[in-house]
Amino acid sequence: MLAYIVRRVLYAIPILVGVNLITFVLFFVVNTPDDMARMHLGAKRVTPEAIDKWKQERGYDKDLLWNEKAAGAGKFTDTIFFDKSLKLFALDFGRAEDKRDIAHEIRTRMGPSLALAIPVFLVGLAVNITFALLMAFFRATYLDFWGVVLCVAMMSISTLFYIIGGQYIASKIWHLVPISGYDGGLDAAKFVILPVLIGVVSGIGSGSRWYRTIFLEEMGRDYVRTARAKGLAESVVLFRHVLKNAMIPILTGAVVVIPLLFMGSLLAESFFGIPGLGSYTIDAIQAQDFAVVRSMVFIGSVLYIVGLLLTDLSYTLVDPRIRLE
Amino acid sequence: MFTLLVAGCGEVWNDPYPSAERSANTLYAAFVQRPKHLDPVQSYTTDEALFTRQVYEPPLQYHYLKRPYELIPLTAVEIPKAREIQGGKFTVYEIRIKPGIQYQPHPAFVAANHELDSGKIKKLKTPYDLPLGSRELVAADYVYQIKRLAHPRLHSPIFGLMAEYIVGLGAYAEKLKKLDAPGWIDLRQHALEGVEEVDRYTYRVTLKGRYPQFVYWLAMPFFSPMPWEAEKFFEQAGMEPRNFGLDWWPVGTGAYMLTEHDPNARMVLTRNPNYRGMPYPAEGEPADAEAGLLKDAGKTMPFVDRVVFTREKESVPYWNKFLQGYYDNAGISAENFDQAIRVAVDGASEPSPEMVERGIELSTAVDATIFYFGFNMKDPVVGGMSERARKLRQAVSIAVDMEEYLSIFANGRGIVAHSPIPPGIFGRHEGAGGINPVTHVWRDGREQRRPIAEAKKLLAEAGYPEGRDTKTGAPLVLYFDTTARGPGDKARLDWWRKQFDKLSIQLEVRETDWNRFQEKIRKGTQQVYGLGWSADYPDPENFLFLLHGPQARADGAGANSSNYASPEFDALFERMKNMPSSAERQKLIDRMVEIARRDAPWVFGFHPKAYTLRHQWLANAKPNDMAGNTLQYLRVDPEKRAALRREWNRPVLWPLGLIVLALIASAVPAFISYRRRERMAARPAA
């Protein structure tokens, strides 16, 4: 297994270089270092000297990808791309364009992101599986039919609608929770109840339909027929046998997103005023802060790769037939 | 679980603030943009001024209530007088500050805190975790700050401008550049020729030539005092990775100190215990007494102990929290305008019945800002000083119906501009004498836009009858460069096309992003475009320079984006800019405005009007576009606020019961179905 992990980690390096290159190219297709300087120096009284100084201080006065004037390897290494990318692999994110320490920001903002993402993930998983099991249990009845209709309807509604509608009803009309904001420690609870609820509800449609499909597929297998033939109650068949065997595809979807929970939610964090990493990424994109954008994309890629690796490893835990060679 | 969580919230469940704060003398407000710089040498935006101006005290300030804006001393004993030397070659300003002013408590004033080990710094949550000290404000602190304008590691937006005037500042920057090395540069060791400490409480600034507007700069945070100890303290190794620095933790003598700094969520200003206190003004505009703005005359400020700013990125929660009483004041976004404001037949705005019912009051004020739509004077079609091009621009100026634009796209929040100078600034005329005769006439006691027929006539005289070139017969096509993009801006762009269509001119809209737009302006490749300008200080020079030829954007880095160059206008500008406000200066301004109206390098656009709503428990609020240190004037009634918040936010619990009942009810058929299925003798055939 160790060899497998090492191999996967080595595979990850070219992927990360590629992701970094794509991010770099996409960013600099629409922004030049001069644009970035102007964005950060403001619109008033910006002189060409100030722009040059800004670029020089941050290393944006070099060539982007290829330095024609340099000699030998310097043609590649004495560039903005090499300069900015290499440190990422040592997890040295450096400073944002406003000179704030990115690693410090990430550490600070990870908590609020997780405070929202973990409950949404866990409660959502539980609710979706329960709802899907119920639909599977009552398959081919009107309960199943209306459950699916409800799921399709819920899938069709935009997340933004859930957020604004939820804020309107729960906070503005019923006055049950703060409409937005965040506080540390236990006080965070009153701020995350509503976004968690909205996160769970908005995910029920797609999640439940996906799990229902898995359960129905599993219920058509021979071992289920055998269990029924033995006279087991339908609930026992479903919860003891089907659920256990359906865990493999469920794990595929669930484990891969666990590391990505750190990245936060772009939309919910903005609307609920939660100072997490999702909100950080959006701010950075709007402010043309390449240092933060590339760091967040890099972390996202690393976490996704970690998620896929964990998924593969988790197979071996739940299915003894699978061996990683 | 839900009940348990909210049980701790008491009577009000949706209160975003801790229950212990409910009756505290705190002002609650929101901020939208993360402040980028709180270092007064770099900070330039209104968002940042919200914080910096409460902490830093430049020598001068603006009177809170009087209009037109009036400069008054802040830490200075009096407004410094310009003294010309060497036959006007240089001007000297000697600024004497009041003795006995103390800095806020800060760790920088404790010598032991200047040699912290990085392990200790790592453990700090805020700089205020360290032992705190203070000291008296001295003239040397102002001198130190002016030197910082030239600091090689700082980006002062006014360095270029000030280097033109302050003797030796440019050379000083060069000198510091050569000296630059990691670590703290002690600027006290390096003298600046044009800025010197005269005695403990007096400093002198020597300018090249005359620059009367310099006193306005002395009211801006760029000229605030900076104690050298603060720079030295924050330059210690280990401070930067903790985001401790002057850009984030200001150190000043103002009414408030920034005690909580989280630009992602919350910024908190706390009353500076060392603040000397200032009396609330006893004079203002005639209507101020009636508005209750003089009730606190003579009382010592600040009135509020704490100001909590919460970041609100989205307008929906911001607006609803204001309505719930969790923000004491708020602006009005376009989507909330109809809910908040009722516009009377005569165009006057007043709070809607819903706002009145809550005791919400409205303040309006025209900003010292102009949004204009310019022609690039270097463009072969719309530019140049030929009669043909001038008449074309004049025709367009008449056709673009700014009154309609304001009504449709700004909910009437603005007034049509007739010159570059907004209300409240010297040089502007109101009423019949203030209208632009090229585009408007004064009839029946009010301004009226000239009929489109006159615009068509001008267009024909320009050589484009019915929008066609008389020489070639080709239709006239103009290009409008704008950053507006996406479906949200379609209506606005259609409106622009419609304005030109009135003259049968085809308008091609060239939509682009801000960076490309700026690039076109820099290169002078735009044709028609839109931009805005907000005053740095209330002087006509700060608006008329936008049309000053030598400051053409395409020829350098000036602010004249239309690249307008009129020798007569430029000569008048050179004379006017250094004159004190007087009848003679007014004459020059009148002539300049007349020239600009005739040449029409801009469609003069509009001056926006700021609408601010405030709750009944907030007193002394008056919009002031120039003074930034306004929070100390505000007073809140926390008891009244707490009572009204309770009344407005009683939790509605019956829907929760209904939801539980609905869930139970929906489970019943499932349970019945389950029971029926379990009791079946055999499964039905599929």
Describe this structure as you would to a colleague.
The complex is a heterodimer of chains A (325) and B (686). Chain A has 325 residues and is an all-alpha fold. Chain A is 73% helix and 0% strand. Chain A is built from 15 helices and no strands. In chain A, helix 6 (102-137) packs antiparallel against helix 7 (142-156) and helix 6 (102-137) packs across helix 9. The longest helix of chain A has 36 residues, at 102-137. The model of chain A has no long low-confidence stretch (mean pLDDT 89). Chain B has 686 residues and is an alpha+beta fold. Among the domains of chain B are: 33-254 and 272-284, Periplasmic binding protein-like II (D-Maltodextrin-Binding Protein, domain 2); 369-610, Dipeptide-binding Protein, domain 3 (Roll). In chain B, strands 13, 16, 17, 18, 21, 22, 23 and 24 form an eight-stranded mixed sheet that branches. Chain B has a four-stranded mixed sheet with strand order 1-12-9-8, with helices on one face. Chain B is globular, with a radius of gyration of 30 Å. The two termini of chain B are 43 Å apart. The mean pLDDT of chain B is 92. The interface between A and B is large, with 67 and 65 residues.
Helix and strand string of chain A, N-terminal first? HHHHHHHHHHHHHHH
How much strand of chain A? under 5%
Q: Please name the two chains that share the biggest interface, counting residues whose Cβ lies under 8 Å from a Cβ on the partner chain.
A: A-B, 67 and 65 residues
How many angstroms does the end-to-end distance of chain B come to? 43 Å
Q: In terms of per-residue confidence, which ranges of chain B show pLDDT below 50 for 5 or more consecutive residues?
A: none
What Rg of chain A do the Cα atoms give? 25 Å
Q: Summarize the biggest pleated sheet of chain A.
A: none
How many individual helices of chain A? 15
- Topology, number of strands of chain A: 0
In helices, the fraction of residues of chain B equals 25-40%
State the shape of chain B. Answer: globular
- Low-pLDDT stretches of chain A are none
Main beta-sheet strand count, sense and barrel state of chain B: 8 strands, mixed
CATH C-level class of the domain at 369-610 in chain B is Alpha Beta
What is the first-to-last residue Cα distance of chain A?
Answer: 7 Å
CATH architecture of the domain at 369-610 in chain B: Roll
